[in-house]
Structure prediction request, 333 residues.
Amino acid sequence: MTTPKISLGFPPGPLALEAAELAERLGYHRLWLYDSAAIWEDIWVHMGQIADRTERIGLGSAVLVPNLRHVMTTASAIATVDRVAPGRLVVGVGTGFTARRVLDQPPLSWAHTQRYVSQLRALLAGEVVEIDGKQCQMIHHPAMAEPRPIEVPIVLSAMGPKGQEIAREASDGQLSPDSTASALAELDIDPIHPLTGPIWVETAQPGDVLAVTFHDIEVLGWGWAGTVPGFGFLADEFPDPHLKTFRIGPGQTHVAFNENISLPLRPFPGVIGVAPATDERLVTIPPRENGGNMDNRYLGVGTTVYLPVRVEGALLSIGDTHAVQGDGEVAGT
Prediction:
C-alpha cells in the first residue's frame, strides 16, 4: 500500500515559520500558504523565509489571486523562491473567493484568471508577452536571477465545470496567446481533447435519452487556429506548421482573421457525449453512438442535443470547445 502524502495549509503570519519547521520534522509533504492581503501577512515574504530555513518540505500558494499583484511581480517572486528552494514550489492560482469577498468584491472571472495564468507561464518561459497592451518580458541579468525557462508547476483551484475546463486548458495547455508556429511542431497530440466530466445525471438509466440544451457559452479570452504537421486532411498540402492566435474580449461578437476577413463568433463544444457501456479505453478522436467528437458547429446556444444513455448516471462529458468553425475540421482546428 502506498503511503499517503499529507500536506498542511497555514496562514502567512507570525507562526508560519515555526509551523513550517515543525511540519518538515514531522514528515509533511507540503506547506500551502494562503493569499488574502486583507487578513494575512504577505505570502511571498513568508514563503522566502520558509524556503531559506527549511530543506525538504514542498511549498505552495493556496491560492494566488490575480488582482492582488501584477503578473510580473508574481513571476519575479516565483523565480526568487525557486532559486532559494529549487524544485520545491507549486503555484496555486484561483479566482479569489475569500480574498475578494473581504474586499467586498465578487470572485474574478475565469477569463481574467486564464489570461493571468497564460501570461505567467509565458513570462516564466522567457517569452515576450502582451500585458496591458504592451510587450513585456523578464529581462533579469544572469547574475541577478536564475535563467529562464523557470519550470514551476502551476495548478488551479477549479470550482465548477467552467473552472475544471480552465484548469485543463491553462495549466496543461501547450499553447498560449503568444505562442508561435514552432510550438505546433512539438505539439503532443495525446493530451488533446481535455474534457470536463464525467457529470452524474440523477435518475438517468440505460435506455433513456438525455437532452442537453446549451443556454449560454462564454468565450474565455483567446483562441487559436493552425495546421499541425502530419495531422488533418490537408497534411500533405501543408507540411509546415502554421499558427494564428486570436484575443477575444468580453462581449466580442466577431474576430478578425486579417484586415479583410472578420468571422462571427459562434461558440460550441466539439466533443459532447455520455459514457459508452464498455470498460475498454477509447480515444476521443472518432465520434460514436454515445456522441463524442462530432465537431458540429450547429451545437451552439439554443440547441438541444439528444444522447442515448448507456450506463447509470449517463456520465456526461464535454470539451474541445470552438469559438468559431466552418463545416468540419478539415485542418484539425
Remarks:
- The chain has seven helices and 17 strands.
- The chain has a mean pLDDT of 88.
- The two ends are 43 Å apart (CA to CA).
